[in-house]
């Protein structure tokens, strides 16, 4: 009998639990540890923030689904992982032991690295659904008293897609309300150019996004380092190579949403051999930690080096499909170990993304993630908005049903030539 624990019940961890079930023997036990009773679909947070979704529409009560699928669910949260003892210390003081652990704890949001940043300070966030609800209140206040907007992603950020989405859906909603003429918009980003996305661009994301910004009168500042934020004012340093400040900007704002840098969560940060200095989990090509081979990791909590040097630090995004590929590889590798074999399966880590602009959007596929690529494609169209709404419905449905990848999802991806795995073990 083996005890398998998944730590983190977010987008990756929940699907991880569903995929692991099929790998277990009759006496094995699977536990999912979260820190909230409800799952929320993070990619829909921008829509909650603008009032296009209610919080309840993107949330799911996990306990009944997991009970139906025979997964033990603990939602009290973990205080610390003790890998030497194969033990997780819970916030309640109890211990949960494991034979195999999958870390899926996502990011800790490093708002504290910039004075005044974040929902406890002067800028809004869409990283958690509770932040998105608060951001919606701030947006309605802006609509009542229009003024300048700043949207973007700060130094060290890795998740740029949602910043573009949010800027462009704000523009769409403000135009619908006939308020756009009263709201100057600036996009402030650590990226070296618009459309870099932490991936050195995909297809023509540079051209597509620059032209979208030009058409919608959104100004931008790239290579931006946010020095500090005060009530209604952001100090931004535009950096040149070698850490030189090329220009400083004092930007006034009535409303701002800035994506923060991420780091690993406190439960795993600072554990020698398990995590890097930023707290992200170190893994090999089989998603397995080299120092503690019974620990695997998937999702945003995984350490990935940046794509290349940039004047301002920029991380690599971990997008949904990439996370799902990590999940499938990990499930197969743990399954192989449970059956006395060895991990052989590798995730492709392909970046596949739909970025919604409210009335249109862009889609991109990068395979592999690091250029030069075999597939390097991006396109713009109204269909992306429709596809994203369809994907939201589909994903929420599969989490509610306790399924991971029904066969028609596999069929569509295979038809498009997008693979999740590099090699199949068994
Ligand atoms: P999360 O979904 O954040 O899950 C981590 C979970 O671990 C959380 O539930 C957290 O509560 C839990 N946890 C943390 N610490 C502990 C602890 N100590 N004990 C117990 N539980 C713990 N990607 C796309 O491909 N398409 C998109 O459209 C898209 N939109 C995005 C929009 C936003 C606003 C953001 C922030 C990201 C978006 N992403 C998107 C990127 C990525 O898909 C998401 O960030 C995704 O949620 C990451 O999944 P994850 O499982 O790694 O982390």
In short:
This protein is of the alpha/beta class. The protein is built from nine helices and 24 strands. It has a domain of 146 residues: FAD/NAD(P)-binding domain, CATH 3.50.50.
Low-confidence stretches: none
Mean of residue pLDDT values: 94
Number of helices: 9
Strand order, biggest sheet?
A: 5-2-1-9-19
Which cofactors or ions or other ligands sit in this model?
flavin-adenine dinucleotide
CATH architecture tag of the domain at 115-260: 3-Layer(bba) Sandwich
Biggest β-sheet strands, sense, barrel: 5 strands, parallel
Q: Got a strand count?
A: 24
Alpha-carbon Rg, integer: 21 Å
Shape: globular
Name the CATH superfamily assignment of the domain at 115-260.
FAD/NAD(P)-binding domain
Report the CATH topology name of the domain at 115-260. Answer: FAD/NAD(P)-binding domain
Strand content: 25-35%
The N- to C-terminal Cα distance equals 21 Å
Which percent bin holds the helix content?
Answer: 25-40%
Structural class: alpha/beta
> What is the class of the domain at 115-260 in the CATH system?
Alpha Beta
Description:
The protein is an alpha/beta fold and 426 residues long. It has a domain at 115-260: FAD/NAD(P)-binding domain, CATH 3.50.50. It is 27% helix and 26% strand. It has nine helices and 24 strands. The protein has helices at 11-21, 45-50, 62-68, 129-144, 161-176, 205-215, 320-338, 382-401, 407-416, and strands spanning 3-7, 29-33, 38-40, 59-61, 72-74, 78-82, 87-90, 95-97, 100-103, 108-109, 149-153, 185-189, 218-221, 224-230, 233-240, 244-252, 255-259, 262-263, 295-297, 346-347, 351-356, 361-367, 375-380, 421-423. It has a five-stranded parallel β-sheet with strand order 5-2-1-9-19. Strand 22 and strand 23 form a beta hairpin. Bound molecules: flavin-adenine dinucleotide. Flavin-adenine dinucleotide (FAD) binds at residues 7-13, 33-36, 42-43, 45, 77-78, 104-106, 126-127, 159, 161-162, 265, 267, 299-301, 319-320, 323, 353. Its EC number is 1.8.5.-. Residues 3-302 form the FAD/NAD(P)-binding domain.
